[in-house]
Amino acid sequence: MEELNQLLKQRRQKAQELSDMGVELYANDFKPTHSISELLPHKETIPEGADHTAGPRFTIAGRIMAMRKFGKAAFLQLQDASGKIQIYIKRDAVGPDVYTHFKKLDIGDIAGFTGTLFITKTGELSLMASVLKPITKSLLPLPEKFHGLTDVETRYRQRYVDLIVNPEVKETFKKRIEIISLIRDFLNNRGFMEVETPMMHPIAGGATAKPFQTHHNALDMELYLRIAPELYLKRLLVGGFEKVFEINRNFRNEGLSTRHNPEFTMLEFYQAYATYHELMDLTEEMVSWIATEITGSMQVTYQGENVDLAPPWKRLTMVESLVQIGGIPLETLQDKEKTFALAKEKGIDLDENVGLGKAQTELFELLVEDKLIDPTFITAYPTEVSPLARRNNDDPTVTDRFELFITGREIANAFNELNDPIDQKQRMEQQIEERGDDEEIFPILDKDFIRALEYGMPPAAGEGIGIDRLVMLLTDSPSIRDVILFPHLRPEKN
RNA sequence: GGGUCGUUAACUCAGCCGGUAGAGUAUCUGCCUUUUAAGCAGAGAGUCGCGCGUUCGAAUCGCGCACGACCCA
Length: 494
Prior knowledge:
Blueprint: H1 6-20, H2 36-39, E1 57-69, E2 73-79, E3 84-90, H3 91-94, H4 96-103, E4 110-119, E5 125-136, H5 152-157, H6 159-165, H7 167-189, E6 193-194, E7 200-201, E8 213-216, E9 221-225, H8 230-239, E10 243-251, E11 263-272, H9 276-295, E12 299-302, E13 305-308, E14 314-317, H10 318-324, H11 330-333, H12 336-345, H13 356-367, E15 376-379, E16 401-406, E17 409-416, H14 421-434, H15 447-455, E18 460-466, H16 467-475
Parallel strand pairs: 3-5, 6-10, 14-15
Antiparallel strand pairs: 1-2, 1-4, 2-3, 4-5, 7-9, 8-9, 10-11, 11-18, 12-13, 15-16, 16-17, 17-18
This protein binds one RNA strand through helix 1, strand 1, strand 2, strand 3 and helix 3.
């Protein structure tokens, strides 16, 4: 028998006492007639000082969040999914037996009440209870009412408690769900079709990242949790679906930070016969619309910084951004030796085999990225860092690609898709060669993907948007863990 | 992987130049039928994250470990 502390013993004892009185501790037959939020508008129509017992009766259920007990009466705060309301319960109204049951209830218990609405002396809408029904006994005490639960470790490990006691946390996750729903609406309205592609891949492709590995017993084969859905969505373009999207988890076996969780949610969408310019337009429209729906404005504040999401957004090539924002002379950027020298001076360690484009990209990440607060599309990414993107017709050293940055963070990545199977195969092989010594990245050529391209993939543009980061922006959340219900943590002791 | 900070009652936190562990909330008891961080009076509640060391004596000092946060890679 485990040793229980005093508080836990007391709760168990009260539960036993209630049970002994014939009260069902975990009742399953209670039906509220109303949600709490449905009662709140009545405040406007009930005259102050009106008869407590007059008016229609309502039945509600929820968790008791606070109790202010007097000898033979008490006020409670009851919380359900929709809101909170005060309950007034007095012995004379419910009878001595029920009042005895009530005295055995604790903060945290779930209970149902039937009663009439009235306004208290202090002007608060309240339910005068005539019926009380204990529904679920809580054996663990909730955190303190005033400070709530602030210990982040407990908040993440026991998100259910966090959600009970911290209303703003619940709001953030409601917004997350709403954002995803708005994305679906937006894309569905434009004729995109939502699809589901495999989460377990025989080859981890579509991005460069370390995958999680698993094993399929019946087929006796290794499988990888997907690092990106890209190659499957493109197969669907080959198959004739011209506008597809998928919103789901990607898994990357890499470090954790305020911006990285090993599983994260990605929107990817592909549109045949479109170009990345059209996707920039679409992205501006979608994100600014969602911001308006969620926050009421296209001007949002993120961690004290003002961000203007109103279109049109700034569009710069990577080289332009290095000149304008990074302060690097164009002449330097066009010369491989000078660029490498500058990179070295800035403390960037570059392999001798890499090209000018890689060096530019590193300089961009170091000098420009975190200065892009208002939304900015960076275009013309070097080909050598864009293995799946189509080369630019006029300058084959860069691709028809953009990344979108807001508050210094990468939010989206998009490009005209490479649909030349010969070029694609060569570039994949080159990638494999370059990362060949990193054993955890599993360099395997996806021959079936090449075969699909050989059948002919229509010209298309595709984009990925990191949903977690978008939600962070629109909910002013400093850490990705604040927008993921159950973020990854090491296991608890014991 | 490196650095900094943190871990004390169920929760929020004090205590830390070493000397038998404290507050508020919550809980329990008594009083209280319009309170809203209700009030008044009283009480109980702790492996001070874990381990080793220094010391007559460690929540406090040192080392190691665990978990977490932030920053860096």
